[in-house]
Design goal:
- This protein is mainly alpha-helical.
- The protein has two domains: 31 residues, no CATH class; 113 residues, Winged helix-like DNA-binding domain superfamily/Winged helix DNA-binding domain (Arc Repressor Mutant, subunit A, Orthogonal Bundle).
- The strands form two sheets. It has a three-stranded antiparallel beta sheet with strand order 3-5-4. It has a two-stranded antiparallel ribbon with strand order 1-2.
- It is globular, with a radius of gyration of 21 Å.
Amino acid sequence: MLASGGQGCPLRIAGALIVLTKKNQAQENAAPANPGEQVNNSILFRLFQLGNVLQRQATREIGITAVQWAVLGALSRSRPEAGLLFGELAEYLVVSRQNLDGVLKRLERDGLVERIAGADDRRARVVQLTAHGRDVWAELQGRIYEFYEQAVTHLNFNERVSLLHYLNILQKDLISVNLNGAPQNPREA
């Protein structure tokens, strides 16, 4: 049994201790007081916070934004000289075409990527790393892997695998959210 000690109402869910203070409780009066909904809110808000922390830390420690990091990483996979179609890259990164275009313009300005006409369809744009982009990516690898290691230092290997598993499930569930009941685009599911 948990004792509140006068500081708030403790609630233990899945091993995590959540303390509801009077301020929290007043805010919760406006929303359902279902502990499951509170946990759902906490999960999604924490993901939002983690995205912001990753962005800030990537910029500070690696010298590029998290999105730039993701683009360079995606383009460096398997056959970096072949590149990826613009639409495939946007889909792989789960970003809008408009946001990707802005990121690519900055990376092109810095000489890290280029857009070229597709071999099969000259109207299609293929995004690929430049020679300079490949060199920069290679130079960043040591810092990136040290960043990874420090970012998950308090999780053992099995916990890391479990976290990845649950994040994959959450991503699929988020993609399938449909509050309007309208049919979803099959490419989004």
